[in-house]
Amino acid sequence: MTTLSAFKTFTSGLKEQEQLMPVLFIGHGSPMNGIEDTEFSRRWTQMAREIPTPQAVLVVSAHWFTRGTQITAMDFPRTIHDFGGFPKELFAVQYPAPGNPALAEETASLIQSAKVELDHDWGLDHGTWTVVRHMYPDAKIPVLQLSIDYTKGPQYHYDLGKELYALRKKGVLIIGSGNMVHNLRMVAWDRLNDTGFGFDWALHMNDRFKELISAGDHHSLIKYESLGREALLAIPTPEHYLPLLYTLGVKGSKDDISFFNDKAVAGSLTMTSVKMG
Q1: Which CA distances in Å does 199 have to 160, 195, 213, 229, 270?
Q2: Domains of the chain (ranges plus CATH)?
Q3: 8 pLDDT above the threshold of 80
Q4: Residue 7: is its pLDDT beyond 80?
Q5: Which of 76, 201, 207, 223 places its Cα 20 to 30 Å from the Cα of 88?
């Protein structure tokens, strides 16, 4: 892997657009959403029709936790099937979107708070391809992933998100892919198909997160551990929550906020997603 100097300047050739690209946080839920026609996957498809067509997509996925920050920089990232116990049809899916090494270099050069390694080994994990293949099924738009440094706290990830703002001016769609409420240990497995079913604590915390996002209270969202016991139940481990902080970091002061796929599943998960801009 290659580490970029913060003093080098790279250009992907992407020019500034007249319209600022929106930012999305998407609750991706089960990998089966990648192949099933669900209310969630249909909304992802619809969202792609509602927003400008991006020049590229950059995803911060809950499923790429690394020591240090990395970005995929290969010409053609592989499709990663990083799960088990699902039907063979899911493992057969390939999403052959191209990468964009020059954009990876430019993105890394924007980030001054960390040394960013150019990765040629990872690819697109299910936090990315299960969503993006519904949005852009032709797989012609370049897709990159930015990893989450597991050695750093929430403030670091929020601040790093701020450094990505210039990409929005160049038509790059930034997506955080995770889940606001994600507690697999408490899943009601017997109610997996009961869309809209959530435990009281999960529904309350999901509403609280939405209130804070709408109010622009990013400080409380960064300090989520101080929001009480229900927040700790909603976020027993941080990987599915941190992508939200990246998207909040890259949000502009004039961006409108709207929510979609705002439902709980299996008691302890929420698919609630956010569009900013």
Answers
A1: 33, 12, 21, 14, 10
A2: 18-276 (3.40.830.10)
A3: no
A4: no
A5: 76
